[in-house]
Amino acid sequence: MKTLKVSIVTPDGPVYSSNVEMVSTKAKSGEMGILPGHIPTVAPLEIGAVRLKDGGNTELVAVSGGFLEVRPQEVTILAQTAETAAGIDIDRAREAKIRAEQRIESKLDDIDQKRAELALRRAINRINVYERRF
Ligand code: ATP
Asked: Which CATH number does the domain 90-131 belong to among 2.60.34.10, 1.20.5.440, 3.40.1050.10, 3.40.50.720?
């Protein structure tokens, strides 16, 4: 079976590196599934999960935006933040979700509203990856 070398890196350093059969994730333009031999491309990412399939195993990594670079045998994800399911502090994510919801409910100006909505999306994404809801 052909594989792709996948690296997920953040400003704090590498988070994930492995050879997998398929990568799928949510780009701004929609869901992308990448197999070995894919045409080279660069795509901005949404807050979402990267799914890494290898054999019967699928690993999930939560990312909060960034870029995906595809080359025929290689995928590089440059993410603002990235955590594997095992690297997620679930209590922290649940607290961040409650905090963001409370901020959205209070009267915020437009900029803070947008910030709170993004924080809420990051928290929900981490909770979903931890609970494997992808
Ligand atoms: P919080 O309010 O809990 O800091 P946040 O969404 O504002 O959440 P980010 O700015 O996205 O946090 O991330 C800051 C750093 O903390 C990154 O290195 C990120 O990987 C890490 N991080 C954030 N939340 C978690 C979590 N629940 N588990 C593990 N690492 C986390």
From this structure: 1.20.5.440
